[in-house]
Give the backbone structure.
Amino acid sequence: MGFDTALTRALGIRVPVVQGGMQWVGYAELAAAVSNAGGLGILTALTQPTPEDLRKEIRRCRGMTKNPFGVNLTLLPALVPPDYGAYAQVIIDEGIKIVETAGNNPGPVIRQLKAAGVTILHKCTTIRHAKSAVKLGVDFLSIDGFECAGHVGEHDITNVILLNRARQDLGGVPFIASGGFADGYGLAAALALGAEGINMGTRFMSTVEAPIHQKVKEAIVNAEETDTALVLRRWKNTSRLFSNEVTKQALKIEKESTSGEFSDVAPYVSGKRGREVFLNGDINFGVWTAGQVIGVIHDIPTCGELLTRIEKEAAETLTRSQSLYKATPQSKL
Ligand SMILES: Cc1cc2nc3c(=O)[nH]c(=O)nc-3n(C[C@H](O)[C@H](O)[C@H](O)COP(=O)(O)O)c2cc1C
């Protein structure tokens, strides 16, 4: 017995679980561990300072797993944007066959990757963006609900609605569910809503192989679902962050700033300080992102233990669901 979904078939994976791109977390150690466990591990391109560093990281990951893995390429607004085309070219040259794209104006990069035969999972938080991505020919949508870590978008639509809309309105283009998933019950629920699998970020941070400080993993285990906050809404760049001292300061300034200038809050939401949190384990050193799913994460398993557990829970849940609907003498269906 095993999973047989459009995602497992297209990506050549055993368990329909993707580890989403994560800045300063998505290194070879984690991606290889997820792929070795039967899911799809993903390297995060922009954790590498240059395209050449990404090439080295891809080769390092290949040395750690024989299974398929992907690369995330996130296109975010920046004063001096990274050379996305050069990152995409390295991905192509290194023979990567699966890419998770996310962010603004992904057209040029998606076209470049598609022309090289790469399978694209595009992550988006609205059906409108999903439809634009369908026009670009992406292979899977990764539908990121309001529960998710990181950029939640500006519309605050949770996955129960978004996934239903995806099933109704994406013309049969396959999609996976992202945001709020941590276990096999969630995977079974996503499959029931029409998804072909799930994408998880925060859950994979709290695994043995995630290359971040143990204290961050413990903070996730000890947190509740109410311990995240939305910042930067004022600048239409809303991010869900772990609610620590710096996040609270940033929120206060966002509310109280009379100038409304982003520069007022910028020092508080610095990515550099967030990166330090993962290295030094001081969870109040800077802002870092986590999803509401922190409320249902209670341990720090290996990726292998986690995916085995997810498979077992999903299988049991699907069997139970089937047993809830039986043929009866009156049944007309
Ligand atoms: C620490 C962290 C960093 C992330 N960085 C990125 C990123 O650089 N690009 C991206 O597309 N998504 C990023 N994400 C979002 C994840 O890929 C995924 O979509 C999200 O975590 C799903 O929600 P969940 O955390 O509830 O599972 C990040 C998530 C976390 C937790």
